[in-house]
């Protein structure tokens, strides 16, 4: 039965259609077009072909379908100019389709690309960045090949499983770890959001993209949580934390984590000692330590390549980019909204013997107040949250007008949106380099380098 508010145009609820997938969206969803007849079958609608979107038919989004495949899909939602459908069957598979490693793939919402060979993942991510650059920033610029992760699986150093309280296992049903059924117990799923759902959780006993040490600890944590649930110790659901560093895994949000980053030397430079950073387990920090050294070194080298003597790190956290780049600059200033992260940044600078840095707590938009760096000699690194830069920050940054801006983003869509402000202010794009810190998922980090002209 269709939901009460279901829009039955142009497809009926759960109507099955066949179509060819032509591309992947930046959300990791297969996109195809379905040519609607002039008069559709009863239960749908009458829609003239002239009213259909340009490009050869009605747009249909099908998660887990790959470009070049012909699929059968079941429609579950119609929007104003596109429909969403579930993948029912792959009628003609892509040559790049592979068997997913995780049995939960397609149900768990954590991964989108386990069915796509890794080389294909990298190429489609590059294409998606190029398309966003063109459509949102209005720029035709060559996007460098995506720098791959040394590990395709088992790379994540942090996971945050969730569970709700109040949903129980029916009598006789097997438990989540396969034990024979018994009386009803308070055993809700412990894991991640189901694909396409904002509330339903899929039970995950092992995560294929998490480190082995995290999966070993996850087994213990799940048993501890289930025991506490059976004892009635939880009144509401919770989000768990498992973070690995130095071979150990902690579940304490306030634990101090130490990450050692063996940075590659700059062009023509001598090898230096690894950068050692401390931070709280709950704080933001990149979760792929295998690609992190190359990632941080690239940001460092791009900031220094324009000849600036001074560096500003506008979202400095515990000091990753500021301290990695500090040897290339005469002075470094960082700002971060989290006071605890700033305290770690200062301590990390001292512990690594880096004395020409200053860090202060505050909003990124206020970083240029009282800054005595000449803009023509200054490079700025920005690594804002997923939503991108806010207007107040961009106004102040562009008014300051530094020589070089290195914009790091985990969401190329908001990054490319912000680029319009930079190009309008006289900046030119010199490099676009994606990094695949999140294999098997739609996510990536993208580093854009801008230089001021005139």
What CATH calls the topology of the largest domain is Rossmann fold
Shape: globular
Largest sheet: 7 strands, mixed
Helix content: 10-25%
Strand % is 25-35%
Question: Your description of this structure?
Answer:
This protein starts with 15 loop residues before the first strand and ends with a strand. The protein has 454 residues and is of the alpha+beta class. 38% of the residues are buried. The strands form 6 sheets. Strands 17-16-15-18-19-21-20 form a 7-stranded mixed β-sheet, with helices on both faces. The chain has a 5-stranded mixed β-barrel with strand order 1-2-3-5-4. The chain has helices at 118-137, 212-230, 292-305, 320-325, 339-351, 391-400, 412-424; strands at residues 16-24, 29-34, 58-63, 70-78, 82-92, 158-159, 162-163, 191-193, 201-203, 238-239, 242-245, 248-250, 256-261, 275-280, 310-313, 331-336, 357-361, 378-382, 404-409, 427-435, 445-452. The protein has 3 domains: 16-97, OB fold (Dihydrolipoamide Acetyltransferase, E2P) (Beta Barrel); 123-151 and 261-274 and 290-452, Rossmann fold (3-Layer(aba) Sandwich); 161-240, no CATH class.
